[in-house]
Design brief:
alpha+beta; Jelly Rolls; Malonyl-Coenzyme A Acyl Carrier Protein, domain 2; three-stranded antiparallel β-sheet; 9 helices
């Protein structure tokens, strides 16, 4: 395996040469301000964010996992070999979510979350492999990453963590603050903190085929479509419980008919599903539509909430915007504008029904205080 090192970030080059193809190390692109551990734990507690404490080291072969909530008193007193992981931090902090603007060249609906890993010297979560693309942004300190494209995929079933049973690295790289390591899905990796450090992981996750099929079946059933049932033909009277080859062919035809959606129907299903898939539920009160319209009239900026996810159907079919699984009643121009910039312009005042929809979906954030 060869790891290219890029100075600066070019979207066009990245998509052409690296995206879902090979890993690379990018300097001079992202440098978020690291969060103090107290602040990170406070955010996790206040917003009920998924939190884990991982202790151990690959050379010992012993790992311990504790789920949050966590306070400072719950952290090990040992100065080495532990890590705190907090997921969905972008949903709780607008400052953290601001980093996602840099990923606006990728599908909005594919952005999973920002997970923050705060580690002491030697801290690690062990060797593992992800089924999705990830950007590992070093916010503070240094972390050594070992990578492998050819590895034994067997998991070590002794631990709750899905760690690889055996580990042999093909290369290692030290990532410093201000650098970002991009890993396509399927590249095994093992990171170890060099001193105290903080890493922000931006995951780009898409559903598997079974997840898509399950969601499509649920959608079709709710619409009462494709309800034809299999026929009981080609019965073997001597062995009536048998599933005959003819019945297997009948089942296959029935499934193929069910999946034979036209492009417009499949696009509509996909936009609704992908924009609500892995939806994060907030605990706050939705904004009032009248207040949003008043803010727009004052020239205030009303942005989408960090948890909002968008999908746009554009091109040959009528342009339609989906937010958090629901179609939004707006013009094609406003649909493209919102999907590109994730904020409402003054022109949205002419679409009060759409603003009401966005409020009901809890998809808007209040303007920042002046």
């Amino acid at each position: 395996m060869i790891l290219d090192r890029l100075e600066g970030f070019c979207q066009r080059r990245f998509l052409a040469d690296y995206w879902q193809r090979k890993p690379c190390l990018i300097s001079g692109w992202l440098q978020p301000d690291a969060l103090a551990l107290d602040d990170l734990l406070g955010l996790a507690e206040d917003h009920d964010l998924p939190t884990r404490l991982v202790s151990g080291h690959v050379r010992h072969g012993r790992w311990q996992l504790r789920h949050g909530p966590l306070s400072q008193d719950d952290l090990p007193s040992a100065p080495r070999d532990w890590t705190v992981l907090v997921q969905e931090v972008d949903k709780a902090s607008m400052a953290v979510a601001e980093l996602l603007r840099e990923f606006g060249f990728l599908p909005d609906w594919a952005i999973d979350d920002i997970m923050i890993s705060a580690a002491v010297d030697g801290g690690s979560v062990g060797p593992h492999v992800d089924a999705y693309d990830v950007f590992l942004v070093q916010a503070a300190g240094k972390r050594c990453w070992e990578l492998a494209a050819d590895f034994d995929p067997a998991f070590d079933d002794r631990f709750e963590l899905r760690l690889l049973k055996t580990w042999s690295a093909e290369l290692s790289v030290t990532v410093e603050a201000g650098q970002t390591l991009y890993l396509p899905a399927g590249i095994a990796h093992h990171g170890t903190a060099i001193g105290s450090c903080q890493t922000w992981s931006v995951g780009m996750r898409t559903p598997s085929a079974p997840e898509l099929m399950f969601a499509l079946a649920d959608s079709l059933a709710s619409q009462g479509r494709n309800e034809r049932r299999m026929s009981l033909t080609a019965i073997d009277a001597n062995l009536p419980a048998a599933i005959t080859p003819g019945q297997v062919r009948e089942i296959r035809r029935l499934l193929q008919e069910t999946l034979a959606l036209d492009d417009q129907s499949l696009a509509t299903f996909s936009a609704a599903f992908l924009s609500r898939w892995r939806q994060w539920t907030t605990d706050g009160e939705p904004l009032e539509d009248a207040q949003v319209i008043a803010w727009l009239a004052e020239g205030r900026i009303v942005a989408l909430a960090p948890s909002a996810r968008l999908a746009l159907i554009d091109g040959a079919e009528p342009t339609r915007l989906f937010v958090n699984g629901e179609p939004i009643d707006c013009s094609p121009q406003l649909a493209r504008e919102l999907s590109r910039h994730r904020r409402l312009s003054a022109a949205w005042q002419a679409c009060p029904d759409a603003i009401t929809q966005l409020c009901e979906l809890d998809a808007l954030a209040p303007p920042e205080q002046d």
